[in-house]
Amino acid sequence: MTKKKVSDADNATWYKDAIIYELHIKSFNDSTGSGKGDIKGVIEKLDYLQELGITAVWLLPFYPSPLRDDGYDIQDYMNVNPDYGTIQDLKKLIREAHKRNLKIIIELVLNHTSDQHEWFKRARLAPAGSVHRDFYVWSDTPDKYKEARIIFKDFEPSNWSWDPLAKAYYWHRFYHHQPDLNYENPQVHKAMFKVFDFWFRMGVDGVRLDAVPYLYEKEGTNCENLPDTFAFLKKLRSRLDSRYAGRMLLAEANQWPEDASEYFGDGDACHMSFHFPLMPRMFMALEMEDRYPILDILEQTPTIPENAQWAIFLRNHDELTLEMVTDEERDYMYRMYARDPKSRINLGIRRRLAPLLGNDRRKIELMNVLLFSMPGTPVLYYGDEICMGDNYYLGDRDGVRTPMQWSADRNAGFSRSNPQSLYLPVIIDPEYHYEAVNVETAQSNKSSLFWWMKDMIAMRKKHSAFARGEISFLMPDNHRVLAFIRTYGDETILIVCNLSRFPQAASLDLTGFEGCEPVELMSHTKFPMVRIAMYELTLNPHGYFMFALQRNVAEVVARSEEIPAIVSSSTVNMFDAEFRRGLEGVLPAYFIRRNKLLTSKAILREISIREAIPFGSEMQQCWLLVVEVRFMQQPSELYTLFVSKLEGVVAADLITVRTPELICTIEGGIDNSVLVEGFIEGWSCDSFIQLYKQVKSVSGRNGVFSVVQDRRRLPVFHNCVGWWIDFPESSAVVCGNDLFFRMYRRLSDGINPDAEMLEHLSVTCDFPNVPRYFGAVKYVCERGDEHYVGAYSQYTHCESDLRQMVLDSITRFYEGRLALDSTVEKSPAELDADVFEIAFERPDLNNAEVLTDADITVFTLLGKRLGEMHLALARPKTGKDFVPEPYSKLYARSVYQSVQSVVKRTMDRLKRNRGGLHSDIIPHVDLLLERKHAMLDDVKEFLEYQYDCHKIRLHGNLYLRRVFYTGKDFLFVNFEGHKYRSFTARRLKDSALRDVVDLLDSLQNTALEVLHHTSVIRPEDKNKLERWAEVWRRNAGGVLLRSYAETVEGSKLLPRDPSALRCMLDVFCLQRKFIDLRYFESMNPVDFEVVVKSALNIHCPQSRTACDRN
């Protein structure tokens, strides 16, 4: 599904799509060894936050402060606590965050200051009634505003405190050392506006307004949520909109929903406000195993303006507040979640998320599902993504503010200081000990909560319905199941949660969604279609489902074919953070559309750009991209992509013809432009040549590119233009007539088999029938992992590849057969021998009726050259990676296991999916299924022989396209191996006969493809020629195999026993064909028919009679 284009209004409301991460600078990372975290430490960890998927960082107060309330007692609004760094450090943090497309949200305590603030010191000394004295709220008696509640009852007996110097009482809603500012004084407004200007000019993106409900006092009220407060906020918002577009105000108003919603105004006050009452009720619903608390509070939540958004959270830096619950509900929460009185503080519970939920992974996941799917922007508290524990014995709320646990090293990797100098001790509770619970451990374990959270964040960012959609609740009879639908535009998402510790069933009323197909969002698993209104589901204990309800699959596919557009506002550095993010959003659709780019059949989840190295010039902008492709239920992989920016008429033409290489259009420039894979002819290859000639390294964002040369036979290169070649599994840059650079689409971990084989054959073995190897480009990432990006080799002009030669030959053969109409229907018996018979048992067979002299010459030469290459590989001159190994009986047993397994599993899948196949192919599939047991018996015969041959390194994927013809001889190219195998598997040794079988298989497929994919053959002639196609294939294969065997005679490349050789050939051919059949679901009907028919034509001794009869 392509993303809806982001509008200017959407950009202005970025906070709706945000994933906010709350952290305290002192708790996050210590870069100086002082024992306290600092701003530079946060900068060091921005990449971690970006990797997690965070889009905005909320910094708790970092101002100069006596720290009697952990920084919420501010001493200077326009400076930085020197323990944390300097103003310059903070500016750098903002710049570095913006480079990574991270927003920075800071916190301003509007309601009060520290009693050490210069304003308060001045006020104490100023005369009563003066402007400076009136910066704060004073009284001669503590009897005013008696209806205002005392918030910190555990610590304060009154909201008034006596000041002996001023000889008056001052007002404070929180601690006595935090006097409240007097917003009745216009000078306070002016002073606070200066503070806002200071930080917004510096570049912060948002401000959390702490304790905002208490700005004004009025006799006869509870001094909360007064109209004057809303008037001030609207004044502040107006000033913000006129001067700092795209910035955000977040109200911290711990109020009931109807009161908290007042902070939005009519869309002209705060942009966001916390939904405090929802948070405790999610915990209540989980413990009560009843959805009512959630439904009840959301029913009481008013509709908010279009440009407003709730902020929702599970835990934060304070206690789990229970102010906005009833007394009975508070008592229930204490009994369920805070049985130890020491874990209670004020009107709340001072515990982190994991300890609150008993470290139950299912509960933690379920609560996060609710967090990410409820209306609002989710706020994560640092450490909760790795299940950090707490220590409520530390007092106050310090127990949930301990150092971030980065590793199992000293001080949890937080600081290099003496452990006794830490601002707070790290967690050593056995269940949450930092040596077991830390980022490093979580990152290395793909089953950890960290990876689940990362996936959840990525999933939410893909679906705007979570951030911007409407919510409607379903009411199944089972009250333990919470089900609701989020809708936005054409996107509909169904969320179903089991709040119970036991399995539950639910019947959902999906009236109006009949015909929709539920697709699970995390795994992309398709569930049964909604056929009737009532949809039945069963859920595991504390289980959940998140479904996209796809109404019309054809529409989804059609949308994926649309050409997306992304915006680039930069004319100098196009690959800035904004452009990267846009391109990362459209690349998944491009990779899916260009199916050959991927080497995995797994479902693609997301793509991130690791590197963007510029090549070319300002006039011809090109980049070499390294992208990380993440899949569902499979490890991520690194791929390369060479992209170019094209403009003007060329770009317009590409849009008109919809070339497959078109990635997206680019908006924001003077002219229309597009981004394409590859480049146009005539592009200067100077960058590639200079990289090679100078052996220079190029540093990227996350690693280094370097060239490894073989200096023994270096040609002289000249500056030249080049052209782009797009191969099925790789791409290449040809620089003039000298240099060929093959760029590997997928980057290997360690040695790439193509570069390794090319160097060994051309340099070590001096084998002439492969391109001359010159060197390779490697990419070494920060962690030290080495990847081959591509290989340089000699460019050799070739007339064609072998596949084109075979196509021409087989087409001429078919035309000749059709001209002899009487012989088309049935081939003569003497020409009906199989490949093995033609090669070894009937070498004098006259096959001139099938193959021309030119054909015989070609396949004889091909067999000879392949044999010579294998002989070179069997005579190693270097290390163990090329030493031949015996084809042992134990290895033969493992081969048998693999072959019978792929036959069984493929047959079973064909049988299960038979009903969904095209009607024309079902009879052929049925015949294949009938032969299952006969084929398995043939495979079992493989165990009866001794194979006195060797295993060697192979080409590994030797199809006709990988053999070039120079006009005089053959050239073997592209030694990467099969793209669906791992790189380590591609480097394994095996029988040399495997490469022969690949060529035989390719001959068979090509002979049938001519019948089904070209217009040369009339439809009525196709069935007549199918038998002749097999005859041609067997004769060509027989000539090839005979020549190969003669070339390698006397070596240990083939078994000496003819029966063993025949059995090995049959079994390898069978395995090759069933490997192709494994991917039948992604084939078009014609290709599938070709593969099935070719599988039926494979010679298997015990099933041959049945084959011939049919």
Describe it.
The protein is of the alpha+beta class and 1110 residues long. Among the domains are: 54 residues, Oligo-1,6-glucosidase, Domain 2 (Oligo-1,6-glucosidase, domain 2); 96 residues, Golgi alpha-mannosidase II (Immunoglobulin-like), CATH 2.60.40.1180; 286 residues, Aminoglycoside phosphotransferase (APH), C-terminal lobe (Aminoglycoside 3'-phosphotransferase, Chain: A, domain 2). The protein is 35% helix and 19% strand. The chain is built from 34 helices and 41 strands. The chain has an 8-stranded parallel β-barrel with strand order 1-2-3-7-8-9-10-14. It has an 8-stranded antiparallel β-sheet with strand order 28-31-32-33-35-34-30-29. The chain has a 6-stranded mixed β-sheet with strand order 22-26-27-25-24-23. A hairpin with a 6-residue loop joins strand 15 and strand 16. Helix 14 packs parallel to helix 16. One of its GO terms (biological process) is carbohydrate metabolic process. Its EC number is 5.4.99.16. It is an enzyme of class 5 (isomerase). This is maltose alpha-D-glucosyltransferase. GO terms for molecular function: kinase activity; maltose alpha-D-glucosyltransferase activity; metal ion binding.
